[in-house]
């Protein structure tokens, strides 16, 4: 079963980060999520409800802690990747972080299970990158370096914070929509049918926008990896090889036969990611991080 979504117009596919666009637009997608939340709150209780929703989201962002990387690693049954066992990988990590200008070198862990996978969690000094066992044993040094560069780009962008924000926005929208439907069903208010349908659809709209933000960050991390590696060739080679490994090993797992379409997935298709990498102009290499230095760096 393919995970492409060809029925959507090209402009929609680019906006939802199913297909690559010319630039990252995560900010626009998050603004849309805020707009959906604000519209939902306004229809339910007017301007005062909008203000209340804004305050609630701000409090959630302030009070909701990120999952501790140590706790997440324990949940995933990941073990530390010790420098004495994998000195070359730690050297790669150090050199890439130095080139990216990161203040802290992420901690490395190894994930159990089949398939090639890597995740980045935490922020600043707590940043942690976990790499699957299959990645360690089945990728060449250049392919491994490409995966590390991709994850370092996630860390540099602060994508963990971005995903936390989108999660809070989605949960707030879902809560208001559910509250509205409960009022419509059990209260005395008799809303028009279109409003009931709209409140029922709002959580799905917010969910799709959240997924689009995540895919957009994947395209951006690929771009950052290409910059760190002085070109996209190693990243393209790594993506093709990883896709072959995962198709061969994960294809035996029953749920993979019902893989969701790209519209619902957290990653763009490998074809779309390679298309985006090949579209990068040589003049943009080595300038991605230089042009996007955070204040104070």
TrEMBL record:
Residues 86-280 form the Peptidase M48 domain. Pfam families: Peptidase_M48. It comes from the Bacteria. It is found in: Cell membrane. Gene3D superfamilies: Metalloproteases ('zincins'), catalytic domain (3.30.2010.10). Its main location: membrane. Binds 1 zinc ion per subunit. Keywords: Cell membrane, Hydrolase, Membrane, Metal-binding, Metalloprotease, Protease, Transmembrane, Transmembrane helix, Zinc. It is a multi-pass membrane protein. The chain crosses the membrane at residues 26-44, 50-72, 168-186, 192-209. Its cofactor is Zn(2+). InterPro entries: HtpX_protease, Peptidase_M48. Belongs to the peptidase M48 family. This is Peptidase M48. It comes from Thalassospira povalilytica.
């Amino acid at each position: 079963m393919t995970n492409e979504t060809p029925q959507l117009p090209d402009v929609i596919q680019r906006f939802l980060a199913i297909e690559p666009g010319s630039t990252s637009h995560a900010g626009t997608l998050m603004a849309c999520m805020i707009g959906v939340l604000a519209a939902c709150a306004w229809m339910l209780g007017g301007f005062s409800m909008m203000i209340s929703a804004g305050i609630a989201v701000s409090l959630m962002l302030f009070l909701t802690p990120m999952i501790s990387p140590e706790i997440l690693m324990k949940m995933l049954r990941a073990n530390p990747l010790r420098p004495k066992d994998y000195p070359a990988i730690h050297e790669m990590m150090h050199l890439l972080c130095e080139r990216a200008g990161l203040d802290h070198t992420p901690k490395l862990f190894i994930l159990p299970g089949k398939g090639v996978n890597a995740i980045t969690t935490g922020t600043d000094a707590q940043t942690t990158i976990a790499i699957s066992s299959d990645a360690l044993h089945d990728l060449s040094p250049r392919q491994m370096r490409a995966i590390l560069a991709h994850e370092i780009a996630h860390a540099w962008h602060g994508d963990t914070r971005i995903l936390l924000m989108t999660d809070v926005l989605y949960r707030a929208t879902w809560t208001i929509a559910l509250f509205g439907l409960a009022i419509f069903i059990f209260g005395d208010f008799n809303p028009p049918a279109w409003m009931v349908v709209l409140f029922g659809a709002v959580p799905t709209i917010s969910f799709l926008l959240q997924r689009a933000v995540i895919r957009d960050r994947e395209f951006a991390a690929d771009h950052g990896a290409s910059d760190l590696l002085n070109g996209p060739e190693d990243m393209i080679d790594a993506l093709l090889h990883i896709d072959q490994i995962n198709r061969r090993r994960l294809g035996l797992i029953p749920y993979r036969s019902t893989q969701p379409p790209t519209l619902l997935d957290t990653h763009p298709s490998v074809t779309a990611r390679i298309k985006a990498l090949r579209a990068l102009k040589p003049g943009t290499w080595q300038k991605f991080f230089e042009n996007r230095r955070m204040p104070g760096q």
